[in-house]
Amino acid sequence: MRFESEVIVHAVKESSGSYEGREFSSCTFHCEVDLKENGAGRSIGRVTRPFKLGDAKEFDKWAHLGNSLPLKAKAVFEMAAAKEDSAKLTLVEIRPLDKVKQAA
Questions:
Q1: Distance between CA atoms of 97 and 75, rounded to whole angstroms?
Q2: Is the pTM of this model over 0.70?
Q3: In what order do the strands lie in the sheet with 87-99?
Q4: Which of 47, 64, 54 shows the shortest CA–CA distance to 28?
Q5: What are the C-alpha distances in Å from 75 to residues 43, 53, 93, 96?
Q6: Are strands 87-99 and 71-81 parallel, antiparallel or unpaired?
Q7: How far are the Cα atoms of 13, 44, 83, 90 from residue 54, in angstroms, in the given order?
Q8: Is 12 exposed, middle or buried (0-12, 13-18, 19+ CB in 10 A)?
Q9: Residue 56, CB-side half-sphere exposure with 13 Å CA sphere
Q10: Residue 100 and residue 73 in contact, taking contact as beta carbons nearer than 8 Å
């Protein structure tokens, strides 16, 4: 199931090279998410979670926005069942909207 969501992107990282003779290339978007409470205690605030999308060339589409981060973006996710009661979210598409206003 696909769905669209507005996200806040804090960082974008390209990664490419080779490891043990195998080539790799990826781009990772670090998007803001709620911090979940657990049995060990309460929590407040937000953290970032990495989502991979495409290869290292995807970074070139965002490089000029470095000074604008964090910024709002429109993201498309694919949601699929995972083990037990969880769901797996895969980033399918993302495009910038505008800069997030910083707290004074």
A1: 10
A2: yes
A3: 46-52, 22-34, 2-19, 71-81, 87-99
A4: 54
A5: 26, 11, 6, 9
A6: antiparallel
A7: 12, 32, 25, 11
A8: buried
A9: 8
A10: no
pLDDT in tens, 15-62: 999 999 999 999 999 999 888 777 677 888 889 999 999 999 999 999
Q: Which of 102, 15, 29, 99 is nearest to 65 (CA)?
A: 99
Three-state DSSP class for 13?
strand
Length of the chain: 104
Residue with tokens 């990282």: 13
Amino acid at 60: D
**Rounded CA separation 21/18 (Å):** 6
pLDDT per position as a tens digit, 28-37: 999 998 887 7
Strands (E), 1-104: 2-19, 22-34, 46-52, 71-81, 87-99
